[in-house]
Write a structure and sequence with these properties.
The chain is of the alpha+beta class and 164 residues long. It has a single domain, classed as Cytidine Deaminase, domain 2. The chain contains 3 helices and 6 strands; from the N terminus they run βαββαβαββ. β5 and β6 form a beta hairpin. The longest helix is centred in the N-terminal third of the chain and has 14 residues. The two termini are 29 Å apart.
Length: 164
């Protein structure tokens, strides 16, 4: 007999950034500022990420492109790798991700790619504490996920390797 399983992602939607606490507003603003510094020579698509560590530090990252496309790196992974290389003992509490086309003034919703979801999930699993995710769309709405697990419910993890 076959069985059906399902997964549900739950996101909280805020009508505007003004509805968020100051701490989250600052995180999104840091992601926006980082996006403007992206090296997006080929795609002209600027992505910024900002992480808030448990001590309140904000670490940013932006997409870094390369003429050999696979050699580039997404904003989220730049930020996560920087945070853990500089502050390995600090948990990551939240991440904001924003994106815009270089010629646009407006930021749009940009959901992290599969590779970035996997990396974020790895750090969330290792710290055994959820990481909140914030994304903003072109209308200014803010989407909040209480955990990376909402974006990657059937994730590959240490348990998949049979190590736990």
């Amino acid at each position: 007999m076959t069985e059906t399983i399902s997964s549900e992602s739950r996101l909280k939607v805020y009508p505007s950034m003004d509805e968020l606490p100051q701490e989250e507003q600052a995180l999104i603003q840091a992601a926006q500022a980082s996006a403007l510094r992206a090296y997006a020579k080929y795609s002209q698509f600027q992505v910024g990420a900002a992480l808030r560590l448990e001590d309140g530090k904000i670490i940013t990252g932006n997409n870094q492109e390369n003429a050999c496309y696979p050699a580039g790196l997404c904003a989220e992974r730049v930020a996560f790798f920087a945070a853990k290389s500089q502050y390995p003992e600090l948990a990551i509490k939240a991440v904001a991700v924003v994106a815009k086309r270089a010629e646009d003034e407006i930021f749009r919703a940009a959901s992290p790619c599969g590779s970035c979801r996997q990396v974020m999930s790895e750090y969330e699993n290792n710290q055994e504490d959820p990481i909140q995710l914030y994304m903003m769309d072109a209308e200014g709405k803010i989407y909040e996920s209480a955990s990376i697990e909402n974006l990657l419910p059937f994730k590959f993890s240490e348990a998949s390797l049979g190590n736990t």
